[in-house]
């Protein structure tokens, strides 16, 4: 499914796991890895058994450390190559941010440049206590498009977004928590167990409710008059008309865990 040994994918207990598997380069991402991510996310999005997606990095030293600079000469050296690379990375980022299912970035170690951009595309970010974050674009002469910067501004606000980009410095997990860049900071040795339990909790909830909440919250970020209110209303009505709504009420009355089917 991945088409690249540097990208791993597996499914278990309603969770789709995506692992960036380039630990010798701190999980720096090449063009083939961005292409593989797009394929993996398409598969997870289409699979009704996958209810939540977790993205992480192999090796324990990094989530994703950004683009693989060793590939710049072959992948980003000319105007056409830069345009092709940017188009592919945009599709890969969109495959995560546009996924209708909840997405979680499980972050241990370095989360730099494109890694931070990828984490921001996820719905939630949970990191180990020694994780570090940064966008060194100003030290490399790179430009970031409006689409990507808007996600960061929506998350941390304009002042912190400027601080992150203007300084190009690394930030600690506590800095990231204060900024609102991450949802939770947990001890390194508890990170995987914590995220797995978190993801299982989400996967056990009603998929139509969770999916509608994700979509409607996204619409709530838009200016008044730009939100797709008709689709929001339709998704809410679909929840109340679903078999899962019946199951949820019955499970509550019978004092048992509900068994939701997403319909």
TrEMBL record:
Its EC number is 4.2.1.17. Transmembrane segments: none annotated. InterPro entries: ClpP/crotonase-like_dom_sf, Enoyl-CoA_hyd/isom_CS, Enoyl-CoA_hydra/iso, Enoyl-CoA_hydra_C. CDD domains: crotonase-like (cd06558). GO terms for molecular function: enoyl-CoA hydratase activity. Keywords: Lyase. It comes from the Bacteria. It is an enzyme of class 4 (lyase). Gene3D superfamilies: 2-enoyl-CoA Hydratase, Chain A, domain 1, Lyase 2-enoyl-coa Hydratase, Chain A, domain 2. Belongs to the enoyl-CoA hydratase/isomerase family. This is Enoyl-CoA hydratase.
């Amino acid at each position: 499914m991945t088409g690249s040994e540097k990208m791993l994918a597996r499914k278990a207990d309603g969770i789709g796991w995506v692992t960036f598997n380039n630990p010798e380069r701190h999980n720096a991402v090449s063009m083939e890895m961005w292409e593989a991510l797009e394929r993996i996310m398409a598969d997870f999005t289409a699979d009704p058994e996958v209810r939540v997606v977790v993205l992480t990095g192999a090796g324990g030293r990094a989530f994703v450390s950004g683009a693989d600079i060793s590939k710049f000469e072959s992948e980003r050296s000319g105007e056409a190559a830069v345009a092709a690379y940017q188009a592919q990375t945009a599709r890969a980022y969109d495959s995560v941010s546009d996924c209708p299912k909840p997405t979680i970035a499980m972050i241990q170690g370095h989360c730099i440049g494109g890694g931070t951009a990828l984490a921001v595309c996820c719905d939630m970010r949970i990191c180990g206590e020694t994780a570090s974050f940064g966008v060194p674009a100003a030290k490399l002469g790179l430009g970031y498009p409006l689409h990507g910067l808007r996600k960061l501004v929506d998350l941390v606000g304009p002042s912190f977004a400027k601080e992150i980009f203007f300084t190009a410095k690394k930030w600690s997990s506590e800095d990231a928590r204060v900024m609102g860049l991450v949802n939770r900071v947990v001890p390194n040795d508890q990170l995987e167990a914590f995220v797995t339990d978190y993801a299982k909790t989400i996967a056990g909830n009603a998929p139509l409710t969770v999916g509608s909440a994700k979509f409607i919250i996204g619409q709530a970020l838009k200016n008044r008059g730009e939100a797709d209110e008709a689709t929001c209303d339709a998704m809410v009505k679909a929840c109340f008309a679903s078999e899962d709504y019946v199951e949820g009420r019955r499970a509550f009355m019978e004092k048992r865990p509900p068994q939701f089917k997403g319909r």
